[in-house]
Structure formats: C-alpha cells, structure tokens
C-alpha cells in the first residue's frame, strides 16, 4: 500500500482545543464491515479535524478483501479513524473508527479498551458483512446500536425486517442514518448514549 493520507498536525488549531468547561468524556467505537461508511461518519460528525489512516488499495488486497458491492472503493482504513464531538458544554465523546477488513481485526482489542459502547454501521445492500462484526461485539459484551447507512441505491426495509435479518434482540436500537450528514450521525451517537443510560438505570434497579 502507498501511504497517502496519514495526516501530520504540527500545531493544534484553536478550534481543536478541548473547551475548559469539559469535565466528562467517553470513548465510543464505530464499527462495521468493509466500505459501510465508518470513516465518512467519523469525519462528518467530528468537530475537530479527524485523524484518518486511509491507504490506497492495491493488488495486495485482491483475493483477501471482499470488495463485493464496493468495487469502486479506492482507499481503506488500516489502523483507525479518530474524531471528537461535544454532547454538551461539559461532555465530549471521543470516536474511534475501526478497519472493516477481517485481516485488521487484531487492532480491535486496543481500540475497544475503555469504550462505553459502539455504533455498528450497516449497509442494507450487504447485510452479510455485518454478521461477524455483531458476533464479535456480543462476545465482548459491548453494548451497541445499529445504524443503517442510507446509500443512494439502497432498498428501504422496515426496522423489524432488519432486526430479523440481523438476528438482534428487541432491546437493541436500530435506526436509519446518512453517514455523510453531521446531524444524522450526531443523532446516532445520542441514541447510543440514551441506550447506555437506560442499561445503567436498569442495572441499578435490579
């Protein structure tokens, strides 16, 4: 792979500095199969200049990476994406996007350390690429919400149809989103935070 997008930042911009009012932070991981829009979502929602580790795809990935349905994709994340978004004046979320290819999943352990929860980004045209991702999250006992990225040629399915196809329990939130749109992506993160809060409240009651 030819390195073309590792970004070097010599001095932080004023708008990238953490506000003095922030007293609480949380780590959230954005996961999903290859080409579902993870880098796009982190970049769209981040209020700071996002860090990306995208590389140009070369012949080395032929026969290794499953590019079915995303044949036009020319770059891929090889380590992680990183961004930050303020939920309120006192709380920020740090976002870590994972690589989609299975050969990079050895990085997951470090990326999930200390995370409160995850967003599983799904392409409804290629639900099968999400099965292994969901299985790994369940093995990690990591709370998550499922966000279905609206691609232009996606066929609309009901939430219940998607829940059945992904074999998800009723409690797991599923919502549609546009990973390119900041407000839509922010809504996904807020839905995750509300879900995490409900899980915490339920555990305290029990």
Note down, in words, how this protein is organized.
The protein is α/β, with parallel strands linked by helices and 206 residues long. The chain is 27% helix and 22% strand. The protein is built from 5 helices and 8 strands; from the N terminus they run E-H-E-E-E-E-H-E-H-E-H-E-H. Strands 4-5-1-6-7-8 form a 6-stranded mixed beta sheet, sandwiched between helices. Strand 6, helix 3 (131-140) and strand 7 form a beta-alpha-beta unit. Helix 1 crosses helix 5. It is globular. The model is unreliable at 1-9, 57-65 and 70-74 (pLDDT under 50).
Helix and strand layout, with pairings?
Blueprint: E1 24-32, H1 38-45, E2 54-56, E3 75-77, E4 81-86, E5 91-97, H2 108-112, E6 117-123, H3 131-140, E7 144-149, H4 159-166, E8 174-177, H5 182-205
Parallel strand pairs: 1-5, 1-6, 6-7, 7-8
Antiparallel strand pairs: 2-3, 4-5
- Specify the structural class: alpha/beta
Q: DSSP strand (E) fraction?
A: 15-25%
Assign an overall shape.
globular
User: Order of strands in the sheet with the most strands?
Assistant: 4-5-1-6-7-8
- Which consecutive residue ranges, at least 5 long each, have pLDDT under 50? 1-9, 57-65, 70-74
Please give the largest β-sheet: 6 strands, mixed
Share of helical residues? 25-40%
Mean pLDDT over all positions = 82
Put simply, the count of helices is 5
